[in-house]
Amino acid sequence: GENVEQHPSTLSVQEGDSAVIKCTYSDSASNYFPWYKQELGKRPQLIIDIRSNVGEKKDQRIAVTLNKTAKHFSLHITETQPEDSAVYFCAASGPAEGSYIPTFGRGTSLIVHP
Amino acid sequence: ETGVTQTPRHLVMGMTNKKSLKCEQHLGHNAMYWYKQSAKKPLELMFVYSLEERVENNSVPSRFSPECPNSSHLFLHLHTLQPEDSALYLCASSQTSGSRGETQYFGPGTRLLVL
Questions:
Q1: Any chain B CB within 8 A of the CB of A24?
Q2: Strand, helix or coil at A84?
């Protein structure tokens, strides 16, 4: 089955700095890579995703890059703000039978200091 | 948000009690999931239902019993739980497409405390 490794487990930055969180996956057939943000006491919510036919996707201050050859994908947050403080989870899934079930990384706790 | 709802939001129970968690999704999805999230631990997949059939059970103790009467509702029946079962229980739903993964939509969770 799929295995997803996420690093770092904790990331502390100053407001305005950039933050990068990296995930590697094991199943070369995986084709969908979402990132979820979970604020304290709240539910995980999708913030950005990328499919295997695309190398990079941006949405304002956040971007995701995918390297299929190396089987890793990364979340980039620029100009971090205190409200970016949360736990971020990466995931990988698809396309084999039953593989719509995502495999999640262990999460990264991002702390943005004002 | 009203896409995926869960009740109750908080639950305190003794080890001999029986209780049920309820999840409802209003997104027209055909797959539903139960996850356990303990403090400082990753999301642990417990059960998956697709088209109301259980497709995955990740070696969850029998004191947890899921039920999916239709594609919009999911229950988790609890009995004789242990203190280590105290956690946030998250429900999620998604569409299942034949050839690709899809976004998961999570409920707000039920914070469970077992005394």
A1: no
A2: helix
